[in-house]
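CHAIN AND CONFORMATION:
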Amino acid sequence: MSAARPLITLRAIAVTAALPLVLTACGYRVEVKKEDGKTNLAAEADKKLSASEVRIGYFPNLTHATALVGLQEGLIAEELKGTTIKSQSFNAGPSEIEALNSGSLDIGFIGPSPSINGYVKSKGSNLRIISGSASGGVKLVVNPNKIKTLDDLKGKKIATPQKGNTQDVAFLNWISEKGWKVDPDSGKGDVSVVRTDNKVTPDAFKSGSIDGAWVPEPTASKLVADGGHVLLDEGFLWPENKFVITNIVVSQKFLKEHPDVVEAVLRGTVKTNRWIHSHQDAARASANAKLAADTGKALDPEVIHPAWPSFTVTDDPLAATLKKQADQAVKAKLIEQPDLNGIYDLRLLNKVLKAAGKPEVSDAGLGAK
C-alpha cells in the first residue's frame, strides 16, 4: 500500500476587514452581515467532499501512466481537497477486480478484459467504466534467432501475461485469424501460448524457455533490451492505431454514494493527462520515480525511452474498441457473448471535459441509463 504524495500549495486569502472570517471544520467562509442582522454565505473554499478517503488501484505498468504520474505529482490529490488517497498497486486484473468486488477498492485503473469479466460476472451490478486512460503500448517481441517472420511463430512458445487477460485475448484472436488452432484453456496447439507473469517474462526470455511474448510496456522494451526484436505492434491491427489498454473503473456503490469524490478524481486524471501531453520528459521521469517507489527499482533508460512514446494517455475510453475486444474473447471461446449494456457511465467525465473546454466522448451505445 502506498499513499499518494500530496502537492502542497499555499493559498493567499484576502479578507476585507469589514467582513468577519468564520473558521469551520470544512475550511473557511466569508459571511456578509445584512441590515436585519442575518448572514448570507458570500464565499466558501476547501469544502470537504463526501468521503474521508478514496482507495485507488493501479498496475506498476507504463500503460497506467495516468495513475503513476497523477499520484506522484499530486495532481489527483489536489482535486480531492481533504479526502485522503489510499493507493495500492496490483499485478493482475482479476485480483484488482476481486478487491473492487469485496469493497476494499473504490476506483481502479485496469485493462479492458478484466473490466468486461468483472462486469459480466457480477451481472452488471458491480462496476462502471468511467473514463479511458491509455491506448496502445502492446507489442509482440521475439527471439530474432528463432523467429524472423510472423509465419515462424507456428510451433513456437509465446508468452502472454495471464489466461484471458487483454493481451492473451488479442494474441489468441490473431492466431485464429491466421487459421491456426490453440486450445484457449491449456494454451496448447499450433502455437504454445505460455501464460507468464510480466515480472517473470524477461528471465524466461533470457533463459530460452519462451521464444517471444505478446506484452504491454515496459515488459516489451525490457525484452528488446535483452536482444528481442519487435515483430508486431498491436496498434497496427486497429483503425488509427487506437485501442483501449487501460480504463478507469469505479464501484457502483461508491459512485452512487460519493459522486463528488469520483468527479474530483476525474478532474485530476484529465488534468494529469493534459500535463503528460505537455511535459513529456518530466512525465516520463515522474512515472519512473513512481515505479521505483512501488517496485524498488526504476526502469533503465534503454527501457523507458523507447517504451514511453509507444502508448498514448487519453480520457476517451475508446468504447468501440472494448466492444471489439469482447467479441474477440467470445471468438477465442474464453467467454460467452456478454451483455455490456450499461458498462459505461461517462456522465461525470463528460461534465469534467465540458468544463475544461474539451469535447465529450462516446460510450458507443453501452452507457448506463
Residues 1-45 have pLDDT under 50 and may be disordered. The longest helix spans residues 259-278.
